[in-house]
Amino acid sequence: DTAVSQTPKYLVTQMGNDKSIKCEQNLGHDTMYWYKQDSKKFLKIMFSYNNKELIINETVPNRFSPKSPDKAHLNLHINSLELGDSAVYFCASSSTSGSTDTQYFGPGTRLTVL
Amino acid sequence: GNSVTQMEGPVTLSEEAFLTINCTYTATGYPSLFWYVQYPGEGLQLLLKATKADDKGSNKGFEATYRKETTSFHLEKGSVQVSDSAVYFCALLGSNYKLTFGKGTLLTVNP
Q: Which candidate from B34, B42, B98 shows the least CB-CB separation from A56?
């Protein structure tokens, strides 16, 4: 059973397009996250939702819009894709937003913008 | 703000060699500390963690001790295997609920 799953695994698209990445967790967690990993492997948090409420919103272009329809799902929609959006996007989840809770990561979505 | 500094790689070792990957942090309050591992083409997996000073996290032969006095959480393994080849990330979880990562250290173990 996959704990945190993401679709698609690979996404290749043209500049200017709009695309979505989906994430689902079956761990019963109530907090979910999106991270971006750049070409140098550096990981940075983008957003976090706790019980469908946005709690972390880093300095990310407003072309990126997260949506959490329920506690088990967190989607990321990206408008007007740019070359610099090419990266691996990781979803993660944890049991609460407390400071000791381990975040569990999905397998990642490799986005390539041409 | 919070930050994590880990030794730059790449690190190349022979099988059965001793491994140390240094990690130091800057944080307010009492963060939890983690090591994550990313195998080629895969996502991040939790390797070990420690939630308070002097705690030792351990898993798969890897160990790290939370040292508040030196603000460090160095990763060690006594005898590495080829299968340990991966990118290792040190991270801290602070009171702002954000997981802050180091830049990652690529480890290659040769037979």
A: B98
Q: Which among B28, B40, B15, B37 is positioned nearest to B71, based on CA atoms?
A: B28
Question: With contact defined as beta carbons under 8 Å apart, do B99 and A103 qualify?
Answer: yes
User: Are the beta carbons of A90 and A38 closer than 8 angstroms?
Assistant: no
Using the predicted structure, report yes or no on whether residue A1 has a pLDDT greater than 70. no
CB < 8 Å to B42, chain A: 107-108
Question: What confidence score (pLDDT) does residue A99 get?
Answer: 55
Dihedral sign, Cα of residue A105, residue B11, residue B60, residue B25: negative
Distance (Å, whole) CA A78 – CA A61: 10
CB A47 within 8 A of CB A35: no
Contacting residues of A for B49, CB less than 8 Å apart: 102
Q: Does A1 touch chain B (CB under 8 A)?
A: no
Supply the mean pLDDT for chain B. 94
Q: How many CA atoms lie within 13 A of B61 on its CB side?
A: 12
Contact present, B29 and B14 (Cβ < 8 Å) = no
